[in-house]
User: Fold these one by one.
Assistant:
Number 1:
Amino acid sequence: MSMDFRILRSKTGKPYSKLPPLHVAILCSKEEEKTLSWSFSGEGVSKGLTKKNRVIAITDGKEVERVVVFESVSLQFVDKKGYMLTGYALRGENPPFSINFTRETKLFSSVAVPITPDLEERGRQLLYPPSLKCSLLAAREETAMVSVQGKVKEVSSVGKVQVGRDFVPRKTLTLEQEAIRVQVTLWREAALFSVAIGAQVSFTHLRGSQSPYGYGLNSTVHTTMEEACSEEEVNALGTMEAEGRPGMLHLLTADGQHLISEPLWRELEADFKELPFYLRIILRGGVITEAEVVERKGEETEGEGKSKGEGKDRGEE
């Protein structure tokens, strides 16, 4: 029997009690933390039991496979070096099977396996899959994982959802870009991302799906989030205390609302005497960090607005 990955696609592969050694090389590897349980309480959600596995991309010189090396399996290896792999198992009922490392798995140092740049790239993509940057509108046409950005219009609290026998955290939000709105569902670790209404954010590695409620995007184990800094001009209408956020206020505008610190609003409040009351604001993660009054009545020339908040007066830059 061959010593390469043809056994993974062979109908005769699975029944063999003793599988032949495989001549392989590890292309690349990375550590991956997996949360096995979650703790839910009135104070929020936190990780319970976790474990760290190692994920590797392995090749026989022709094909590339992704293998999870569980925490309980202790193996020492060097990337790109040739090995004879023994003591492995095959996972699955029918071909193509997957390679499963067990406590009996061993790597014997051997001759080199030919590695081409194409194999190296395929190995990297198995461990770090690409995510296509596109608009919310274009994401509907994609079957691959996508990266999108937009403004958070709505966001839920973290909920507790049963998946199989386990309970996992889930959070939903509505993302808007150029009048297109899409619901994004964040699962497990991604549900712990701190997201505020009004924030400009970008997500990577989301996967689209269609449900009776319409099209939506879901997080994957690879999903990341970044908050963008944006500048806007808003018509401020009033404020109210932000429940559970000491020292913060909700600023109501003609287009929605944002968080603003009480000290920053107190600086602006002296000019808040009539409507409309226009502000030029800097948003970071849905929170106003800088603001200046915008005069629209001709009292001041351009560049002479009253600047408040972080940083120096814009007229002095």
Number 2:
Amino acid sequence: MRDGERPGSPAPTRASWAAIASCHSAASSTPRGRTAFAETARAQAADLLARCWPEDGRYVDRPGARPTVRAFCDAVEIADLLLDGAPPQLPAAEHVARLRALQDAASGLVPEYGQAQPSAGPAAPGAVEALFGWLHTHVDAWTGMWGSPTPDSGRLQMVNGYYRLTRGSFAQFGLPVPYAERVIDTVLDHARDRRFFAPGRENACNVLDVVHPLWLCGRQTDHRGEETRAWAATQLAAALTRWRPGQGFGFGPTPDGSGPGRDPGLQGTEMWFAIVWLLADLLGLADLLGYRPRGIHRPGTALTGPAGDPNQP
């Protein structure tokens, strides 16, 4: 299935057309039809990366923050998306050498600066089959998820766990998720929780937790497709206004202090670029952006499993 294709390919709703018109009105005149947003981001990418490269020569998420491996990886992906190459602060070979020097040779994992190397052995034979067996036998048929809402945060943690779990399992192997229609019901109900999705309260983590399951399940069914596209249209229009010239995107408000906050930085920029692509793809507009996430938030499969296709988008 190509980007932008959904089961049944229904026409966009009135709300979807509003976002489509907004994106088309901002589209550049280049043959590739990329939006002004993507062109602006490319023009400012070098400045965005330079502000996060302090004198000690290690990337930070934003000026004044401490250096992290996460910031290093975010810089590499942002440069790949916007500049079609490595960040200009170092030659590509030096970026590779620095990352490989941090990597544990046995597990392939990379610890944060100053932390011990992680310990991880090879997976036992049949571990992948056992994992999917457990997931299929323990999923809640009513919600399509693993877990339950809580009085304090509603469906927040349940939906967050679903996103992390399915992105690392079903999505990686290109396998259909169980009870896709129930998942869509649960996620759309969560998206109406004003504690997390009232205007000005959205952050990258919470929006990604919603858009990825809707995108993933939308490849199996068009259940409540008009509502999904209406939500995506509203979120896309809001997201494009959050770009800060020369600085990128801020992660967003985090009342519990669990994220980098509202100030623009590398993590927020990398995550919102992935979110914008997923929202645009739900609306059939991804091609206008002129980029496709290729790192941790890539939409394609990474592994081949039963009925899995590593080339499936």
